[in-house]
Amino acid sequence: MGTEMAVPFSIDSTGSVATTDDPAQQAINHIVSIIGTNLYQRIMNPLYGVDLDAMLFANNDGAVQSALIADISAAIATYEPGVQVENIVVLPDATEENALTVRVEFSLVTATGAAATTLTAVVTTAGGVVDVNG
């Protein structure tokens, strides 16, 4: 991976747009973007993302969580091939009815095919608002 704009957007000490060349941070940013983007939200790439909003108001049971895990796994495999997903956990929020926390544990796949240390991206979403805590 090359250099990318840092997320969240910020200005660095020189007055330029802040960037990162850390592959781990870039992968976390990409995974958060995939999870936080609804299907058909991007006009030029309508299948990018996960239909998370539709599942937020469904019965929050094992079937919905399994479907969401499968959708997230497939989207990451398609749009972030340098990542090997180790585990995805979907948890309902104890304080808010229509909120979920998604924890994705993953490794970076190097050019030689070896996996790096396991990293974690955590996304909490409530009513379509995505908050990144990891």
Question: Would you give an account of this structure?
Answer:
28% of the residues lie in helices and 27% in strands. The protein is α+β, with helices and mostly antiparallel strands and 134 residues long. The chain starts with a strand and ends with a strand.
Provide a brief overview of the structure.
The chain is α+β, with helices and mostly antiparallel strands. The protein has helices at residues 23-36, 52-56, 62-79, and strands at residues 4-5, 19-20, 83-92, 99-108, 119-126, 129-132. The radius of gyration is 15 Å and the shape is globular.
Q: What general outline do the C-alpha atoms trace? A: globular
Helix count, per DSSP?
3
Helix content: 25-40%
Radius of gyration: 15 Å
Strand order of the largest sheet: 3-4-5-6
The CATH topology annotation reads as: Nuclear Transport Factor 2, Chain: A
Distance between the termini: 20 Å
Helix and strand content put the structural class at alpha+beta
What count of domains describes the coordinates?
1
Flag low-confidence runs.
none
CATH class: Alpha Beta
Please, what is the average pLDDT? 81
Question: Helix and strand string, N-terminal first?
Answer: EEHHHEEEE
Q: Architecture in CATH?
A: Roll
Give the number of DSSP strands.
Answer: 6
Largest sheet: 4 strands, antiparallel
- Beta fraction: 25-35%
